[in-house]
Amino acid sequence: MAYTRYVLDAGMTGELVDLYAALAPCAIGYAVIGDNLLKSADTMLEGNPYRSWIELYGSEEFQSGVQTSIKRLDALLKDIDPQSKRAQELVHVFKTATRMEIAFWQQGLDAA
Questions:
Q1: 63-95, pLDDT tens digit by residue?
Q2: What angle (nearest 5°) sits at the alpha carbon of residue 19, between those of residues 106 and 34?
Q3: For residues 99 and 76, what is the distance between their CA atoms, to the nearest angstrom?
Q4: Burial 33-62 (b: 16+ CB within 10 A, else e)
Q5: Are 18 and 7 spatial neighbours (Cβ–Cβ below 8 Å)?
Q6: Among candidate residues 2, 19, 8, 20, the one with its CA nearest the CA of residue 74
Q7: CA end-to-end distance (rounded Å), the chain
Q8: Global pTM?
Q9: Residue 75: other Cβ atoms inside 10 A
Q10: Residue 26 binned pLDDT confidence (cut-offs 50, 70, 90)
């Protein structure tokens, strides 16, 4: 819940680029994991309880959507000086969202 609230807060109190920076760790992470699992010879989809998850996040449609989001984020960042205070604020947003994404996955691993 804290992670979702953080992303919503970034979008509501910041600019569009803040929202994209906060969403990027989740979207990119799911795309990489889904793609890797779908392409993995070790992934047995038949009877796998996570089959729909793997197929969704590994799908061409999701992969394409994430690539579009990455391009939009890059375009939003284009005019921001990497050495500026604003750039550092966006790095902080991205790092915080990344830490929260990691904690989300860790929570599932700890419960197993």
A1: 999 999 999 999 999 999 999 999 999 999 999
A2: 45
A3: 22
A4: ebbebbeeeeeeeeeeeeeeebeebbeeeb
A5: no
A6: 20
A7: 20
A8: 0.88
A9: 11
A10: very high
